[in-house]
Amino acid sequence: MKNGVGLPQEIVTDILSRLPANSIGQFRCISMLWRSQLSSPELIKAHLNRNTHYEKLILISCNHSLFSLTLNNNPLESDSVATKLNFQESNNWGEVVGSCNDLLLVINGEDKKFLLKPTTRESKKLPDSSFALDPFASFIMYGLGFDSSIDDYKVVTLSSNDTDNEHEPDCTNMFENVYSLKSNSWKRVQNSPYDHAVALISSEIYVNGCVHWLASRVSDYLLVTAAFDLGDEKFREVAAPSSLDKDKFVYNKLLVLGGCLCMLDRNQTDLWVMKEYGVEESWTKYMICVPDACEITPLCLWGDEVVLLDLDGERLNVYNLKEETSRNLVVLGAPNKFEYGESFVESLVSPDRGNEIRGVE
């Protein structure tokens, strides 16, 4: 593949980064030279950064099928179409428990864990962990993220035996295991210093190289947002909005929208967005007001102001955060009801070639 007469490599990378991921995947099949140049870390990162603010959506229907949804250029005025996704290894999906770039961590009906790439229908079944506790007698939480220090995707599990003792913390020993996509193996790391029982209320959130959960300190039971850094594999804490009641934000939901850490309050009306990661003063509050909705879950961001909402698992709603206006989204080909929704960003990452994985933090 020739870059073109007189075109600097950075211009070629910029042009290619504007193409759909599936088109670049097809071009890689032309020759080994094309494959090599279209798999460069520079192109992969440029492509992912360009698509960060235009997320897509995965829905799991009540009959355990997967559907992919791409919002149109103006979702506030136009409807959309969903596409059913079929994978070779399984099509009986139970729950999406992690998302990072264009990779999804999904558990199927047989409690097997898979990494899925919706754009190309690639999948990888994760090996069973020798450190895993009995799933029928323990709590298990999951996380998926990218370790930029070694260009590796990692899966994190937090698990503890169910003590069922009202006088003691539910999670007295929180075991933590980490899976490396590059090595295709599991290892046990230092136990978590937090009680993660509260995290059963909300899913994990991957932002800025860390997997986040709502948790409480074992030492003083103070509620915090615990962040597990995939680089040094240690925990730290991220400050919540200062105006929140620290005794009650356990009932809030952690989210990620447009690459930002977010928190939806227990009343589902205040959406907090951390515009600059780790800076407490950067938390910005938006109001969400949708009539006749009992359960509201923001799913993905389109551009800078439009967020797609899951209302009671029965309908999708497009909401403008700035103007506080909304409309129900009609999706052709999608189920009337669905169990889970998760966003992803189209990328050039492959789930089944660990040594070639590249991404962004």
TrEMBL record:
Residue ranges occupied by any F-box domain in the UniProt entry: 7-47
InterPro entries for the chain: F-box-assoc_dom_typ1, F-box-assoc_interact_dom, F-box-like_dom_sf, F-box_dom, SCF_F-box_component
Pfam families: F-box, FBA_1
Matching PANTHER family: BNACNNG10540D PROTEIN, F-BOX PROTEIN CPR30-LIKE
Name used for this protein in its record: F-box domain-containing protein
Species: Ilex paraguariensis (yerba mate)
Phylogenetic classification of the source organism: Eukaryota, Viridiplantae, Streptophyta, Embryophyta, Tracheophyta
